[in-house]
């Protein structure tokens, strides 16, 4: 079979970490993968490493700096000449927007620390770089490769994002309104919000202008990526375009303090890249890594075989371990333990019911960070804003989904 007949994928930011794992898994599926990286030496070394897995015939390297239009144009020209079209684009390139304390990030994920200022030391320069690479780079690469994706019979775009970019994390009402208005969202509007954010950051007015006070650049860049994903899905209905949070993965960025391996972090991006033609588009997928215990996570994620009795067993096992003081040794969540497990069980129960009653419309949701007595009214949203109207969905709406405020996602 000639190269032009095989499926071809591009993965950005792929010389290490999640991007490298994605390349490895895609190549293992027989897909021709263009592994890209800003640093040519590191990129070529990554391709060389993949030869150990017998994948040398499925991976090639091309240098790519997503901030450089000429570099992006060079990649597009290479794809057109070498393959004639593009089937899969995985936008993975990104930086954290600050210097990360991996140990404290791990504690935040386990609900042991709640102050993000202890996790990321940020500056304007790092936030600007994060926005430029994380959003404008994603946009630049995508727009350049769209003509080649349109030549594919099964085009897929996967944008690696983060739950930190959910709208609930943006206190600025204007920005939240622009990003949430998918019907009228444009590239220009996305860029306008980000430029206003950077302007206010540079002027030292993050707090007074109601921008995210911590992890600011990453929050805004990922929120823009999420909005861009939904905008593209609406514009190209025959594409399958989705974004996702890969989970808390052990990478250089967090000094390998994550809960998931590189292979585990690459699972969802690859799954979205290989979605069938009738799969959903324009969604946000999130891997629930808040329950580190392997067996409960595996059981609650196995929707095909999950039963109500199995959920009850997991919850009872958690309560038994809690009573015996073995949460830590049994790898249950340490902070907000009962809350995390009960919500995970509720999410699983939602999916069971949706499968059991296909004529029903059954979904779960996170309403956002709402001002209530539970958080001493420190939330960003009013009760009215938090009251997402899933109860009034039309009959042809999806079922078995998890909604972040008004944003759809998988469990």
TrEMBL record:
<dbReference type="InterPro" id="IPR045313">
    <property type="entry name" value="CBR1-like"/>
</dbReference>
<dbReference type="Pfam" id="PF00106">
    <property type="entry name" value="adh_short"/>
</dbReference>
<comment type="similarity">
    <text>Belongs to the short-chain dehydrogenases/reductases (SDR) family.</text>
</comment>
<dbReference type="InterPro" id="IPR002347">
    <property type="entry name" value="SDR_fam"/>
</dbReference>
<keyword id="KW-0521">NADP</keyword>
<keyword id="KW-0560">Oxidoreductase</keyword>
<dbReference type="GO" id="GO:0016020">
    <property type="term" value="C:membrane"/>
</dbReference>
<dbReference type="InterPro" id="IPR036291">
    <property type="entry name" value="NAD(P)-bd_dom_sf"/>
</dbReference>
<protein>
    <recommendedName>
        <fullName>(+)-neomenthol dehydrogenase</fullName>
    </recommendedName>
</protein>
<dbReference type="GO" id="GO:0016616">
    <property type="term" value="F:oxidoreductase activity, acting on the CH-OH group of donors, NAD or NADP as acceptor"/>
</dbReference>
């Amino acid at each position: 079979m000639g190269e032009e007949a095989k499926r071809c994928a591009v993965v950005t930011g792929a010389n290490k970490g999640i991007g490298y794992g994605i390349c490895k898994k895609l190549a293992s599926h027989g897909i021709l993968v263009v592994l890209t990286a800003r640093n040519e030496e590191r990129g070529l070394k990554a391709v060389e490493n993949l030869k150990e897995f017998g994948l040398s015939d499925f991976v090639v390297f091309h240098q790519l700096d997503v901030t450089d239009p000429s570099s992006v144009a060079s990649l597009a020209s290479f794809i057109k000449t070498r393959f004639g079209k593009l089937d899969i684009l995985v936008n993975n390139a990104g930086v954290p927007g600050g210097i990360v304390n991996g140990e404290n990030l791990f504690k935040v994920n386990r609900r042991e620390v709640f102050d993000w200022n202890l996790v990321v030391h940020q500056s304007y320069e790092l936030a600007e770089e994060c926005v430029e690479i994380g959003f404008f780079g994603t946009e630049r690469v995508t727009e350049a490769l769209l003509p080649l994706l349109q030549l594919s019979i099964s085009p897929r775009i996967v944008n690696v994002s983060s739950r930190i970019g959910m709208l609930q994390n943006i206190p600025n009402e204007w920005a939240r309104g622009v990003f949430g208005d998918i019907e009228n969202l444009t590239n220009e509007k996305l860029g306008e919000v980000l430029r206003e954010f950077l302007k206010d950051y540079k002027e030292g007015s993050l707090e007074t202008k109601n921008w995210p006070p911590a992890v600011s650049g990453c929050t805004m860049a990922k929120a823009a990526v999420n909005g861009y994903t939904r905008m593209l899905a609406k514009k190209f209905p025959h594409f399958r375009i989705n974004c996702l949070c890969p989970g808390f993965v052990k990478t250089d960025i967090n000094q390998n303090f994550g809960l998931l391996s590189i292979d585990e972090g690459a699972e969802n991006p690859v799954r979205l890249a290989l979605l069938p033609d009738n799969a959903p588009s324009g969604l946000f997928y999130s891997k629930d890594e808040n329950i580190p215990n392997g067996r409960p996570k595996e059981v609650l994620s196995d929707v095909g075989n999950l039963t109500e009795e199995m959920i009850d067993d997991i919850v009872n096992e958690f309560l038994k371990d809690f009573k015996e003081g073995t949460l830590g040794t049994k790898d249950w969540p340490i902070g907000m333990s009962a809350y995390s497990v009960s919500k995970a069980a509720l999410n699983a129960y939602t999916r069971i019911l949706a499968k059991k009653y296909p004529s029903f419309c059954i979904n779960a949701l996170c309403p956002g960070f709402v001002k209530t007595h539970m958080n001493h009214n420190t939330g960003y949203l009013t009760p009215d804003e938090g009251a997402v109207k899933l109860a009034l969905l039309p009959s042809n709406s999806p079922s078995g989904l998890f909604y972040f405020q008004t944003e759809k996602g998988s469990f």
